[in-house]
Amino acid sequence: MSLAFHAGVQRFVAFSNSPPCWLTANGLPYSDNDRTKSEPKTTNLGPATKPGAWAPEYAKFLAQVVKHLSNMTRGAKWYVSPINEPDNLWDNNRQEGCRYDNVTIINVIYELHFALKHLNLLGVQIIGPEASDNSPRLKAGASWFSDSPC
Q: What distances in angstroms separate CA 93 from CA 11, 28, 30, 134, one per listed residue?
């Protein structure tokens, strides 16, 4: 990254395939529950007893990573992509991912916004969610925000 920056690259994306294993319900970077293609009833962003509750910790972790990386590339434009294909099952040990419901997606982005602001990373833009098929999310429409604490 440092070489790219010194060679003239001015835009970087901090992309997360999964939260760190210590922030997932099952201690793994993928879901191991029996999932269907419909909206999941739970999320792998732990703890298992209260799915999605670790969104603030995940956001703080990502903000710290972006702060560290942006300090190495002063003057570059930074983006952060916290959610990897929430529409996929990710229920095997071959591929990591973020199987999140709409409320968890909103919470992660909401918490990340404030974590970046807290670290004075006001120029960092959030990209999310990165998905292979957004149609289930788009069909949910207003429910994205009606269930949100935002």
A: 32, 9, 7, 24
CA 30 – CA 34 distance, rounded (Å): 12
What pLDDT shows up at residue 146?
46
Q: In what order do the strands lie in the sheet with 11-15?
A: 11-15, 77-81, 125-126
Say if residues 82 and 108 touch (Cβ distance below 8 Å): yes
pLDDT in tens, 9-47: 999 999 998 889 888 877 878 776 554 444 444 567 777
Q: How far from the centroid of its chain's Cα atoms is residue 50's Cα? A: 18
pTM attached to this predicted model: 0.79
